[in-house]
Amino acid sequence: MSACSIRVRGVVQGVGFRPFVYRLACAYGLAGWVLNGDQGVEIFLEGADTRLADFVRDLRTQAPPAASIAEVEVQPTQAAGLQRFTIRESEASEHPTVRVSPDLPVCEDCLRELFDPSDRRYRYPYINCTNCGPRYTVVLGIPYDRCNTTMKEWPLDPHCQSEYANPANRRFHAQPVACPQCGPKYYLKTSNREVGGAAAQSETVALLGKGAIVAIKGLGGYHLACDAQNADAVSALRERKYRKEKPFAVMAKNLELARTIVDLSDEAEELLNGAARPIVLAPARAHLHGIAPESSELGIMLPYTPLQHLLFAEGAPEILVMTSANRSSEPIAYEDEAALASLSGIADAFLVGERPIARRVDDSVVRASVFGPVVLRRARGYAPGAVATFPNHVPLLALGADLKNSITLVVEGQAFVSQHIGDLDYFGSFQAFQQTIVDLLAMYDVRIDELLVAHDAHPEYRSTIHAAGLGVSDTVAVQHHRAHIASVLAERGEWDRPVVGVSFDGTGYGDDGSIWGGEIFVGSVRGGFERVAHLRPAVLAGGDAAAKFPVQAAAGFLHQLDTALDFSAPPFSFPRRFVSARELVKQKVRVFPTTSAGRLFDTVAALLGFTREMTFEGQAAMWLEQLARRGDTRGSYPFPFDGAELDYRPLLQAVIADRLRGRDVSEIGRSFHRGFAHGLWRCVRQICRERSIDTAVLSGGVFQNEVLLEDIKWLVHDSPLQVWTNHLVPPNDGGISLGQAALAIFAAEHCG
Ligand code: ZN
Ligand code: FE
Prior knowledge:
It is built from 21 helices and 30 strands. The model has no long low-confidence stretch (mean pLDDT 94).
């Protein structure tokens, strides 16, 4: 006989871990106890040595699907002579670092009951168990107990209570457990009436079938849903939402159907069907009118709530548009009254669920990239999971960038990245940003004055100004493009590895106050990054407005060529805005120096025909990528590197010459991408060689471009160098807060 104590860290609360431990201990005839401690699950075991070893092995290999074990610590200890195994009450904690699980899709067992007419939860849209259902979107505080969730208003009836209290039941301590007798319900609200129960679902299905737009309450907010194959419904949604061209995500009834709509690689299918159930970007097979204009990709997801399964089972259109319910640019609506008010002109009806949403969490967006899976918008299913473990314990809050904002809280070395928040220039998003700070701090029970606060170096960012107003004594400004590189290394826990970091994006505040966006660094997270090369500078006329008008960006970049060409004439046919921007450039009025790679891509988009205003961020670059994808050519344009500057002038000259010659624009687009990839790779190789570095890091919004990544991957193929990209946080500004956290923590170390 012997005994041991075990501590398990990771996502181990609210995922059925204690009942799993209980069953396992009983199966091996071991005595002892399990409890939720403040740093994870604590287990005490006594019994035969071999049985203890079996237990520890199974603990790792047979853990519940939603659990994510970070660490198992086993200590031999004194036996206590216990006779049986028990589940003990949670210990109240001072600094809870136990992780809140992300929300989970409804599981197979619950789905079976959902469609079983003899089950008490038959067709009950809030069915869940310890392996599935809401977590982050219902948690109000820690420890994760029912009284700390949005289900606290619904006392359990005797049946649910007996399941909840029985360690052998799969609903043992399932905090959001409910049934039709005791739990919340859904009802359908139209302009003139309200219906509840089964009629709410069947009428919703009927409305969707007729082409109506229905706002449907989900896990982290409302969706606007309509039949994706009904072109009139889709265009009505665009008109009412003021969303001209930005693609809509769709939800397909099941995986088989999804396969007919998009081309799914094994990796993409794994993402689509995985526990996060994100929106997956994949090449379109079917044409859905008005869903993703001018794009060869489609964003698709599978149903993840019981309600979504019910609607499809009852005959809802098999492909639904499921887009975040909001007016353009505002954050997703999640509170009933606000949703009803703000969406009244958009939705024909509202399918409202009574269970409140604790916090707004959008659907996540991912892609199976050539460099591996990448999260482009990190939200439902991923947040608030920890994405990195730091080697020291400086408590820190990083406020991110102003576009695609997310924040990162580091507690006891664990970096928790918030869900996607949005663009802080919009009032609603800025409010969400403030709420999320308060929320994360409360969840991990830390006070703002205990924290080191990291923010962007841009003095005019709202997040920077907010940092100054927090009343914290320690704040650290982190340069934007260094944060991009650090975000990749933080994901991997690589603090000391020297790398060549390529940070290419649209805009970020540089060391010299100019607009950076084509930067190459050498260094490590611990030692810091030195800027060793960059894109040849140009100027931007009118500053930030140039990000909306590719021809305005083009004015500055084309000025570098010293050409007398008239870009107002065909084949370019630039509008008047170009001429006025060129005047500003010539007279050096309201111009800002820039090394932005994003604006270079915009310039090429303009030269190849995208001369209008963008209706959403990144549109011109995406348009160019789609164009290039259709180009069938191995040709590439020159993009030389002189040891300090990447010179785009030969690239642009080649684009212009081929355009004048009448070459197919998609071939030109592809040759531009190839040339860009070749030139960049040669430059990276040269710096690696000179500095004896074997690893390159690519980050920044430009590296969301899959055609560019494919061209780079092809070059990396037969190289001894390794290339690292983002996987857990976005390469766009959604990953900035993690990079800020990493650089700020090591900067703090330097200062003692
Ligand atoms: Zn379940
Ligand atoms: Fe950026």
